[in-house]
């Protein structure tokens, strides 16, 4: 098989890249290890930056997002039992949209297939070859048959555990890594969210987050140990701890309901640079990971492929490879700012086992400053709603 751009991975990065290229008249094929049902049901991110929601609408994949997405004009930071609102609309004139990543994935798959796009699901043994030539190849097995995709360019959109980044020869890329000494226990519950906006809580027992997926479904997280045993967390214990950490203030109570899903998410900050080797371009989680406290992972993946799609459009439009050559630097400038924000939110809101009493007082002072100063609140707000693309 032959195509212009071979894409490994049908997460938000790979699917959106394929869609944007299609709009620009560029052919692509997506190779995905999992089944369609699996990727469409994988519960992950939930917050879209202001410009990301607009990009999806402008790209013609935002009908359901506009109908079902929950537009939020602020968040609440809770500490010492009191809530403090950060008003995005007032501070930045912008908003975010709460809309599940799996819904974005569903909308993109539907659009690609309706337009005749090719996505090979359940492809095993994917491998990339000849990356330093102008005819790189992807080999894989699907339906028991080995196949080969010859491309001009390969996009490695295969996430943190994919095969593209490890295919780059040693010494070419530098890895920056920080692993946090805690994780998030996340649940999805059939219970109406108790507030309209997200609550990020710093509590002596650890961080907690109230988020949502719809007016009927809550998404909630608790800071836990990286090796937390879920068997030690029966439903009653989860609710008790959520009530405790999110309590305070306005007399509202968390709504309980049956748990639909539960899991533990590790927390890390990771960057691979440069995000290119020859004709292989890394995008999304294959090149970087952020801790979820800033709600940035999916948004960063969208930012990468927006830049890559534009660079490929210039390349195929006869305007040369300058934009492709600049791809990695263009993305990394913004990625490091988003890394900084995600790290900053994480250190401000979580409990660290080795924190001294000084560290704890300083953390509360930081929250007090961020919620009490318009200048400080604005820096949080402008990062949360999304920095400009370039
Ligand atoms: P993905 O979504 O991991 O997609 C990669 C795809 O590649 C496939 N793949 C392969 N295919 C073929 N051959 C192979 N050898 C392959 N190896 C892997 C995989 O099956 C998969 O389909 O990466 P992508 O597209 O870069 O998207 C990144 C986002 O998924 C990720 O950054 C976010 O989910 C992170 N994240 C959040 N991001 C936000 O923007 N806002 C949030 O509120 C937010 N909350 C979260 C999050 C991630 C979480 N978890 C579980 C990691 C909350 C959580 C709990
Ligand atoms: C989510 O709704 O899953 C979510 C929201 C905000 C975050 C992380 C995850 O910071």
Describe this entry's structure for a reader.
This protein has 390 residues and is of the alpha+beta class. It has two domains: 5-70 and 97-177 and 268-345, FAD/NAD(P)-binding domain (3-Layer(bba) Sandwich); 182-267 and 352-385, 2-Layer Sandwich (D-Amino Acid Oxidase, Chain A, domain 2), CATH 3.30.9.10. 36% of the residues lie in helices and 28% in strands. The protein is built from eleven helices and 20 strands. The protein has helices spanning 12-23, 36-41, 50-58, 63-68, 88-92, 101-114, 235-246, 297-316, 322-349, 357-372, 374-385, and strands at 5-8, 28-31, 47-48, 70-72, 74-79, 82-87, 96-98, 118-120, 124-129, 137-142, 145-150, 153-156, 174-189, 199-202, 208-214, 217-224, 259-273, 276-277, 280-282, 288-289. It has an eight-stranded mixed sheet. The chain has a six-stranded mixed sheet with strand order 8-2-1-12-19-18, covered by helices on one side. α1 packs parallel to α8. The longest helix has 28 residues, at 322-349. 45% of the residues are buried. The model has no long low-confidence stretch (mean pLDDT 97). The structure holds 8-demethyl-8-dimethylamino-flavin-adenine-dinucleotide and P-hydroxybenzoic acid (PHB). Residues 45-47, 198, 211, 219, 292-293, 295 line the site of P-hydroxybenzoic acid. One of its GO terms (molecular function) is 4-hydroxybenzoate 3-monooxygenase activity. It holds the Pfam family FAD_binding_3. Its EC number is 1.14.13.2.
């Amino acid at each position: 098989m032959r195509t212009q751009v071979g894409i490994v991975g049908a997460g938000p990065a790979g699917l959106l890249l394929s869609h944007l290229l299609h709009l620009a008249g560029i052919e692509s094929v997506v190779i995905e290890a999992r089944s369609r049902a699996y990727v469409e049901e994988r519960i992950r991110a939930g917050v879209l930056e202001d410009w990301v929601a607009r990009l999806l609408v402008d790209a013609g994949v935002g009908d359901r997002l506009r109908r079902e997405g929950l537009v939020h004009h602020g968040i609440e930071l809770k500490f010492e039992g009191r809530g403090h609102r950060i008003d995005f609309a007032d501070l930045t004139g912008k908003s975010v949209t709460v809309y599940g990543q799996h819904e974005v994935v569903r909308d993109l798959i539907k659009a690609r297939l309706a337009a005749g796009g090719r996505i090979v699901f359940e492809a095993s043994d994917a491998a990339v070859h000849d990356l330093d030539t102008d005819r790189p190849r992807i080999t894989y097995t699907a339906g028991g048959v080995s196949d080969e995709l010859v491309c001009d360019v390969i996009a490695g959109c295969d996430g943190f555990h994919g095969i593209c980044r490890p295919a780059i020869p040693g010494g070419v890329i530098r890895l920056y890594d920080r692993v946090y000494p805690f994780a998030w226990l996340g649940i999805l519950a059939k219970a109406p969210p108790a507030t309209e906006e997200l609550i990020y809580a710093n509590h002596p027992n650890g961080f907690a987050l109230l988020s949502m997926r719809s007016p009927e479904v809550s998404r909630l997280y608790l800071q836990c140990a990286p090796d937390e045993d879920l068997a030690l967390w029966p439903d009653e214990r989860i609710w008790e701890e959520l009530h405790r950490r999110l309590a305070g203030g306005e007399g509202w109570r968390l709504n309980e309901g049956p748990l639909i899903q539960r899991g533990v998410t590790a927390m890390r900050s990771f960057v691979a640079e440069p995000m290119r080797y020859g004709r292989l371009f890394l995008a999304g989680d294959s090149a970087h990971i952020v801790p979820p406290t800033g709600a940035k992972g999916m948004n960063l993946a969208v930012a990468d492929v927006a830049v890559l799609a534009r660079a490929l459009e210039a390349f195929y439009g006869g305007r040369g490879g300058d934009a492709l050559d600049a791809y990695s630097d263009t993305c990394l400038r913004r990625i490091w700012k988003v890394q900084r924000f995600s790290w900053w939110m994480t250190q401000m809101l979580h409990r660290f086992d080795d924190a001294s009493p000084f560290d704890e007082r300083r953390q509360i002072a930081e929250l007090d400053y961020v919620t009490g100063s318009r200048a400080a609140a604005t820096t949080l707000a402008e990062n949360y709603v999304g920095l400009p693309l370039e």
